[in-house]
Structures
1.
Amino acid sequence: MGIDYWNRTKQYITAVTEWTNAMTEPLPEHIAGLLMQAASDQMTADGIAAWFENSIKAYKPFHKHQINQPFLR
C-alpha cells in the first residue's frame, strides 16, 4: 500500500522538493535570464507565474535546461 502511494506521487514530490531547494540557492544563469526576459515579455512572465501553481512546471526549466533552449511554456 505505501509503495503504491510512493509510485503514484514520486514524480511530484521529487519535483517539488528539488525546485524548493533550488529556490534557496543563487539562481542559475538561465533562470535569471528568463526573469529578465519576463520583464518585457508577458508570455514568459505568465509561464514563470505558472511555476508557483504547479512545481512540476518549474522543475524542467531549473533542472533540465539545455544551453540556448527557449523558454518552456
2.
Amino acid sequence: MSWSQRVQQALEQRRQNGQYRQRTPCQQADARSLNIAGTDYLNFSANDYLGLSHHPRIVNAWQQGAARYGVGAGGSAHITGFRTPQADLEQQLADWLGYPRALLFISGFAANQAAIAALAGKDDRILADKLSHASLLEAASHSPATLRRFAHNQPQALAARLAGPCSGETLVVTEGVFSMDGDAAPLTALHQLAQQHNAWLLVDDAHGIGVCGEQGRGSCWQQAVKPDLQIITFGKAFGVSGAALLCDDDTAEFMLQFARHLIYSTAMPPAQVCALQEALRCVQQGDELRQRLRQNIARFRAGADGLRWQMMNADSAIQPLLVGEEGAAVELAARLRQQGCWVSAIRPPTVPPGTARLRITLSAAHLPDDIDRLLEVLHATGD
C-alpha cells in the first residue's frame, strides 16, 4: 500500500464511522457569540469561561507589549527568548499558587508532553485516569515507562494499581476538571494514595484554574491539595493561550535541562506574556465573573431537567449532553445550529464509543436570556 492509498483509506474510514472532523472559519467569535458565513450564533462551544478573551485591559496589555517588545520572542528561552516579562510572570504564578517555581510553555499540550517525556524512564510506571486528556495519555504511551489506566475518578481502582510491584518510580496522572465529562477529580483521595506509595501526582487543571478556588486558584487549591506537578493553561479562563508547570526548584531545574519542548521550542512572545500578566490580575479580581458563571451553570442545569438526553453529573462550565451514536450527535448539533445555537458534537475517538455527546460550555459572558434560548431549543428539539 502506498502512502497516498494509506491516507485515502484512513480518511474514508473516518467518514464511514461518522468521525470525520472539519474546521469552520469564524468571521468573529467571543465567549458569547460567533459569526460564520454572515450568520450570527449564540456560542456554547468556547472555553472562554470568564469571557476574558476580549477584555479591554488584556487586549491593551498585549498591544503595549507588542509595541515595546515586538511580536515574537526571537528564539528559544535557552538562547535569547527568555525576557524580563517571562521571568516576572513565572514568579507571579509561583507565588499565586504557592510553589517555588513555575515554567512557561507555549501550550498545555506541550507542557503535559514535556513533563512526562522528561521524567518517565523504562523502569517507571504511569498510572493515569482512563479519561485523562489525549496529551497526557499519548505522552505516557510513547514514553519508555509502563502505562496503566485506572477507572475514572475511582480512588479504589488507583489503590489496586498502586499495590502492584514497580521497580522504578510511579507517576499518578489526572485532570482537575475533566474536559469531556466536566466532572471534578477526587484529588484529596488520589493525593493521599500517591503519598502513601511514594508516588508523584500530576494534575492538569486546565479547566479548573481561574474558575474555582479562592481568587480562581483552581481545583487543587479548592481541595487543599498541592500536587508534585501542576499544569495550568491560559486558553480557557485566562482567555489567552499557553501554559505553565508548577513544581519545586529541583524539578524546575531538571525540566530546564531535559524537557525538549522547553529547550527547542521558540519561547512565548513577551507581548503575549504582558497580556497574561493582565489576565492573571483579572482572574484574581474575578469573583463577580465566577459568581455569574456559577449562576449560569445552575440556570442551565435546572432548566435542562426533563430533557430526553442524559445530563452528566457535572457542576463545571462543561455540561455534556450524552447522545450515544455519532450520527445522532452530529444531527442534533446541526439542528441546534439551525436555531442559532452553536454547540459542538464530540465523537470517538475523543470520547469512548457509544458516548458521543454535545459538549455545551457556558461562560460568565452569557446572559440569562442566552441560557433560556438554548434550553428552549433543546426542549423543542427533543420533543
3.
Amino acid sequence: MKKITTLYIAGILLLSISACTKDFEETNTNPNAVDKPTPNFIFSRSQLDGLNNNYFFTSIIECGQMMQHYSTYKEASGAGDKYLDNEVYYSAFFARIYPNAINEVTIVINTLKDNPENINRYNIARIWRAYLFHRVTDLYGDVPYSQAAKANSDLLFLPKYDSQEFIYKDLLKELDEAASALTTSKPSFGEADLIYDGDINKWKKFSYSLMLRLGMRLSKVDPALSKTWVNKAITGGVILNAADNAIMEYKDGPNDINRNPSALDPITLDFAKSSFGQKNNEGGKLSKTFIDILKTTNDPRISIYAGVWQGTVQNTSPAVQKGFPNGTKIAPTPIEQATYSEPNQSTVLKVDSPLIIISNAETNLYLAEAALRGWYVGESDQSLYEKAVKASFLNAVIYGPSYAITDATPYLTANPYLAGGTFDQKMNQIHTQFWIALFVDEQEVYANWRRTGYPILTPVNFPGNVTNGTIPRRFKYPTAEYSVNSANLAEAVKRQGSDAFTTRMWWDKQ
C-alpha cells in the first residue's frame, strides 16, 4: 500500500499498447506514449480500479438496499429499496469494469505470459482477473468474457457474450491452474501488489478461497460439480487465519484513489458528516430489518456498523440504534431523519479504513455449509459456524485495536447454533450470519442470498415496482450495449432469457 500515490500517476501507462502497424511505426509514433507497458504499475491500478467501481451505485443503491442493509424514502435513489428501473445505477458497474480493471489486468497477462521468469506475476494476474470477472457475471449473468479486453491485442471491439456456465467453469479452471503454478522460486509483484505484497503462499490461499466461493455458488444448479470444486478448494488450502485475509489498505489522500471507495463514495454522495443525519442527499439510512436483527440478538457488531447522530456527534450505543423501513416514500422531517441509524463514520465510513476482500469469516461459513451437506468431514458444522462468528468479531480490528471483539462467548451463548435443527434451519442460521458478517461487501451478500434464499427477507411491494413485488435476481444490461454491441447482446438475451430484473442467471436456476 506504500506505493499508491505513485501508482495513481502511473495510470497513464495503461494506454501504452499501440494499434499501429509496423509500416506506420516510425511516422506515427506518439512521443508522449510509452512503448512497453509496465506490468507492476498496471497490476496495481487494476487492483485499485477493481475495488473502486461505483461502490455507492452498485453496492448501496442496488445490492445493499435489495438486501435490506440500507433503505431510503426517496424514489430515484431507491432503485434497490423499491425495485425500480433506474439505469444510472444498474449499468454503472458494467460500464466501468471493462475499460478499466479488466482491460488493465489483461494487459498485464498479455505482457507477462511468454516469459517463464514471470510465472508468479502472470498467475497472480490470472487469479485477480478471475476475481474481477466473477463480480460482473454475478450481477448480469452472461457477459463478454473470452473475447473481452481484446481491442488492443486483436482489434476486437465487439466481443461476444459467453454463457455464465462457460464463464464459471473456465474461472474455476483458471484458479486451479494459477494456484498450482505459483512457486516460491520465482519473483513476484512485491510492493506493487497492494493486497499481499506479492506473498505467493497467501495468493494460493486467496485462489483456493475464491474457488471455494465459486464452487459453493454452483450448489443449486449442479450439486455434484459444486461438491467437486469445494473439495478441491479445501484440499488446496483456504484462508483460515486472519493473517491470510485478503485486505486492501487505504490512506486519506492525497488523491481519491488512495481512499477506501466503500467509505468515500457514501460520504461524498449521501452520508456527509456535515449533514449530521438530517439532510442526506439520497435520504439513505440503515434498514430496519438489519438493525432489528442486530438489536434482537444483542450483536456487539451493531456499534461497529451503526451510529445515530445526536447533534454533531454519532452515538454508537446499541440502545439508540433505529433502522428505517424499506419500501416507504414518506419523507421524515430533518429532525426525525437524524434519529435513524447510519453507517458509523469512525469505522465503515472512515476513508482510510481497510477493505476486506475475502476473510476467514466467509470461508468458515462456507465450510460450515459444506459440513452440513456432508461434503466436508474435517469439523462439525457447529464448530465451523462458531469459528466464523469469532473470526468476524476479531476482524473488526481493521478499524483499530479497540474495535476487535475478543469474546464471542456471550453472543454464542445467547444465540446458540441449532445443532438439532433441520437442514433449512441451519442454512438460515449460517447465511444470516453471512449477511451480517459480510456487511460492506454488498455484492457478495446479494449473490449468496440468491443462491441460498437466506436470510429470509420480506420483499416490499412499492407502487410502480418492476418485479411484481419480488427482490430482483440480476441487473439489466446497459442500454448502450443495445446500440453498440447489439448482435452479441441479442444472442445472450435469447440464450439466458429476457433482459429483466426477474430473470434468473445460470447458477440461480431453480
